[in-house]
Amino acid sequence: MWKDSLLQILVAFLPASMFIIWYAKPERTRYTSIFLSVACCLAMLLCTRFAIVTPSGYITDFRDIPLIIGSLYGGFLGASLLFVAYAVTKLCEIEQTNTLYVFIALALLFVPYLFSRIPAFHRSGGNRRLKIVLHLACALLLLNGVARVTVLHGLSDSGEDLSWTDLVAFDALFIIAILLIVHFTELGMQRVQLQRQLTEVSIKYRNEMRRLQQFIDNAPLIVIFCDNEGTITHVNEMASKIAFPLGRNDILHRSFHFFARQTNMSAEENPITRVGQTDARHTEVMRIGGKMFYTVTCSFKQLPSEVSNGILFIGHDITETQMLKDEVNRMERLSLVGQMAASITHEIRNPMAVIRGFLQLLNERSSPEQQTYFRIVMEELDRANAIINDFLSLAQNRIVEKESCSLNELLHELKPLLLADANMRGQTLDLRLSDSMDLLPMNVKEIKQLLLNLARNGMEAMNASGVLKIETRNTQDMIQLRIEDEGVGIAPEKLEKLFEPFYTTKTNGTGLGLALCLSIVERHNGKIKVESTLGVGTVFHVHFCKPGRDCW
């Protein structure tokens, strides 16, 4: 009997033993309740196979242990399936009336109590769970007590050697076995919980890493990680774009000096080397890949007190900010020019008018030989007066009066004057106007001055037999003006300063013509840009945005 009892105890331990092996793989933990229900059902069937049946018909086995364990850990579904299997095996074995009574009592009293304890079991933990299991085990033993008393009462006639001592020992083994099984199962469940928590932490960590990586890649910053030797270990998307046509794989595991050389970095010295030597934060404004960047280079450490684990290089694109700064400086210079023009206009023009008047009077009374000199002096006075007028036009900061007119009509009005200038220089005028042209609010005087300045600049840049092309286009959002010459062209380093006051590429220029053109275009909600190739020519593009359209 006792050998069979020990065998049944080992079988009852089967779910806990299998569970310890089964949960070794983290991906299985989501099926814990299903596995324990199936394992307990298997253990219950094996316990039935090795059950002990007395001559009086009383059955002693440990199948009740898998029933309790599987019901508690498997939930309501597992408990239902286990009780169905338990009922089928029990009904097949019942031969005595008293045993049937015990089973009916089990079905009517114990099973509802078992189901009512399942939610509390899942909400609790540790010692609380052991108490719930102990209450269920005692309740089950109490229900079996009536049948045992009946069996012991009938043993005098059967001769079976079964005493109260054996039954108490059997019940003690039952209690000890179920508590030990719960203990080992709880150890497994704790490891399952740890694995789940570890999996959740790993998923959160990977998600955070992906978010951080996406932030680094999508941020408008150059981000480069280097080791202490200056070898690049990580670059973001913007750094890869700056180093185009090289890709990320072409940059990784190369020295930072290689990246600096490929992007034409204008740093005075390698910032990675400098930080690696001094371990101090270094900031610098430098040009990288044709753009201006504010850069920060520093060492990064896991803890402030630890040794550097590498060097971090961050670059913020300040090209637009620098352009705005340059624009503000240009506006400040224009404002200074306006103040100068406003303050000296009346002081200079009045004496010049008097001087010119007396020179004209002297010219009339002088000999023919001297009239040539007087004419030269008066031409220079007129030129000085024209310069003052340009000052005044450039300094204007008032609301100009505009009227709706067509750019084509203005060009037709200026065509005779432009043809005369071109013929005098031996050049050709090629006028290509759009078939249809929308009206724009314009100040006719200023737009004519703009057209004359740009056209004469093109003519002055060309030799004889050159062709000046003037073209207009009418698009959905804007009116486009294109003036192209076949002159000597403008060097790239001079294009950036072309619209600055007093900057000129001509020998006798004042440097105010193009600055005045830019001022006129901006007052008419337009933009102007220049394309030039040395030895080929220059093209001025002027775009006027139509009213109510968002062109920029």
UniProtKB/TrEMBL annotation:
It comes from Cohnella soli. Residues 343-544 form the Histidine kinase domain. Its EC number is 2.7.13.3. Gene3D superfamilies: 1.10.287.130, Histidine kinase-like ATPase, C-terminal domain (3.30.565.10), PAS domain (3.30.450.20). This is histidine kinase. One of its GO terms (molecular function) is ATP binding. The chain crosses the membrane at residues 7-25, 31-53, 65-88, 100-120, 132-155, 167-187. The keyword Transferase applies. The keyword Kinase applies.
